Amino acid sequence: MSFIEAIILGLVQGLTEFLPISSSAHIRIVGEFLPSAEDPGATFTAITQIGTELAVLVYFWSKIVRVVKQWALSLAGRVPRNDPDARMGWLVILGTIPIGVLGFAFQDVIRDVFRNLWLVAVVLIVFGIILGVADRYGRRTREMEDITYPHGLGMGVAQALALIPGVSRSGATTTAARALGYSRTAAAEFAFLLAVPAVFGSGLYELLHAIREPEPNPAYGLGETAVATVVAFIVGWVVIAYLMRYLKTGSFLPFVIYRVALGAVLMVLLATGVLQAY
């Protein structure tokens, strides 16, 4: 039964990681409705996110290889530091610093306090509204090549807010980008690229932690977690392809409505005792 649950959670992870609706919130909520009826945990969530980030590597492979190559050549002085791809490499590094520092400093809080379902419900609603406002009133004049270092750092700080389940990594970065005047496709693409080092870093850290210091009674073992990660990779790749096509003409409004509705339903379930905060 645990493997079936892992497959379900892998599907949820793949479906929600790249949409601005928070995959960690959905993993947290769906876990309560499975037969085991328990929180899958921060470790399970972080490791399965490796699967979805592998989907990013596959989908943006040529661009990522080009960025890494040009960035490395810029270090050797063989290409200018202001080369667009080399700059993108530095922007991703700069934008990753906030989540790296805060994630390490507050890892105990992330594993415990931040998984309170009341907090998740409030954050889903509040950040959904903020996304809606930024998407509705933000300018659409800037593209990927227009990203500055201050803007890259600002979007990195926004990404760090996703340490709280319910914020959404892609949603927070996209919200900041839209508020700064970037197009929807540019905002989404930078959010995907920015997440790669952060997610791989946290996922590998949690994987090593799970191997070296296994939890006494984890919700899912490494076998189930591996299955969920593979499922998340396959589904995530499909979702990326869909979202990048959708954002060429569509807005974030459907996701805003969904976030607010989900947060409201979650509050009702908590208030009536159907779900417990922890």
TrEMBL record:
This is Undecaprenyl-diphosphatase. The keyword Transmembrane applies. Belongs to the UppP family. Catalyzes the dephosphorylation of undecaprenyl diphosphate (UPP). Confers resistance to bacitracin. The keyword Transmembrane helix applies. Keywords: Antibiotic resistance, Cell membrane, Cell shape, Cell wall biogenesis/degradation, Hydrolase, Membrane, Peptidoglycan synthesis, Transmembrane, Transmembrane helix. It is a multi-pass membrane protein. The lineage of its organism: Bacteria, Bacillati, Actinomycetota, Actinomycetes, Micrococcales. It comes from Microbacterium gilvum. Its EC number is 3.6.1.27.
